[in-house]
Structures are given as C-alpha cells and as structure tokens.
What we know:
By secondary structure, the protein is mostly beta strands. About 0% of the residues lie in helices and about 50% in strands.
Amino acid sequence: xxxxxxxxxxRYYGTGRAYQGPVGGASFDDMGELENFNFSxxxxxxxxxxxxxxxxGTIIEKITESEAKITFGLREMTxxxxxxxxxxxxxxxxxxxxxxxYQAAPTWVDxxxxxxxxLNVKSTKLTGxxxxxxxxxxxxxxxxxxxxxxxAFVGAGFIELCNVSGTFVVTNQVYETxxxxxxxxxxxxxxxxxxxxxxxxxxRRVQGxxxxxxxxxxxxxxxxxxxxxxxxxxxxxYEAVTxxxxxxxxxxxxxxxxxxxxxxxxxxxRQRWTFHKVNVLLNGDFPLIGDGAAILAVxxxxxxxxxQASGQEYYKVETM
Length: 320
C-alpha cells in the first residue's frame, strides 16, 4: 500500500521566533528579526572492514562522534544580541547628559581629526543689531522667553552662544545689562558647528577654511592651510544621548539556553526546539559598511546540560 503524502507536514515559508536566556533559566529575551536559523548535526563514524576477501566491504559502522550546531543571523542590534555575538559579559549605560564646553583647548594636529568626546555638538547664533557692549564670556538673558546663553564669540551684527538654556525668539531683547548692553535678534540659527577662536576669543576660525567638523560624532580637524594655532579654543553645546557600552571579548565564552518556535500560521507542522545549553560565537564577517542589512552571523555548539534527565541533556523537539 503506497505511503500517503500530506502537504501539511511540509514547512514552506520558514518563519518563527527565537528566544535566548541563561542556561537553566526560565526568563528569555526575544532575539527579534533573524536572517535565518539553521540546525545541523555532524556525525563521525569508524568502519570495520571485512578481511575475508579483496573487496574489503564494511561489516560494522559505529558512530564515534556527533556534534549538533545551530547557526543564525541576527538583524537586530540589541544589547542582548550584541552581548551574545561579541563575547561580552555585560552592557553598561554610558549616557551623555546635555551640557556644554566653553573655551576648551584641544591638542590640535594639522590635517588629522581629534575627538571632542561628545556627540551631536552644536552652537547658537543670534543675528541682529548690537547696542552697547557685549563680550566673550558674558551671560545673556532674553526678555519674555527667559532663555539664557554664554557668549563664545561676538561678531559684526551677531553673537554665538553655548550653554544655551531655553528657546530664544526673534525681536525680543537679549541682554547682558537690560536696555544698555544687548542685541535684538532678527534671526536665530542653531548651527551644526562649534565656535573656534584664538586664545582671546577675538578672532573666529571658519568651518571649511580653518577646520572640518563631524558634528554628529564630535570629530574636528585643523586644516594646515587654515589659521588654527596651538592654544585656539573651542566652545559648543551637546545634546542628551542615550548610550550603552559593550566591551567585546570580555567573556571567554557565552553559554545560553535558546528556544526556537515556528510561526503557527506558517505552512506545515508547528515546532518548538529547545537547546538547553549552547556555546555561541560570532562566526564570520559583521558588515559595518555594505549593502543591505548588517547581519551578525552566529554559530552555536549544542553542549551537554547535565542538569537535564539522562538521555535528554542536549535538545528536544516538540511537534504540534
């Protein structure tokens, strides 16, 4: 009688979710979107050949080694996923609070970028008519809005500020001494720029001519063709940024319990694979620049979990 075939036994799309957690644990982190999730079993054997004739046919074959592996590609760069792939023992908060730097004197190196140590740097420019005297280092306050800032440079018909608090608006007086020393701004610009001056603050260096700047990551380069000299000062504000810090290869190995579940709406049987103890490693390239999604390719060796019952120490497959 022929064996009946049932298309419901065949998984077609190949969808599902994977979770990871501590070995022996009962709480898990969702690993998110995966590029793939594969299982393989490698078996080594030893063969006993017959000595009764020249054909030397195999009469006994015994398994000498077996090794189960899982491989998967992580699309989502969560801290938990990165800890697994990059052999890290922990992820620590390393947040940047919003603040400012006033007249710092970096060690300039002609035509080389140096790191200001802050992300998302900026400055604020108020353009308008200046009445009286405004000077570098003055703190100014705006009538009505109450916004404040510290003057990093005074130019012809404008001032540049750092340590800005609040929101400046046009046409309202911004004063050091009200009605005496002030500017009435007709334009307000939040610049993707820092304020670089000579040591006195009197001469302003120009972005593009005297220096290049990456405001998002805080790298600045003094141009040898420009006017920057040793001792030149830099002032800027920087935004609050939520950051975390992982030290790669700080763990000798990472062992996890990993569970894969197929999507219930996928064509075919529903399955749940539980790997009790997996030693996971980044395997291959992690493209930092390239086309398409950056994928962390991970290989995991399924280890024996002695906490499980005899004969059940490696993994189990449930079919529904």
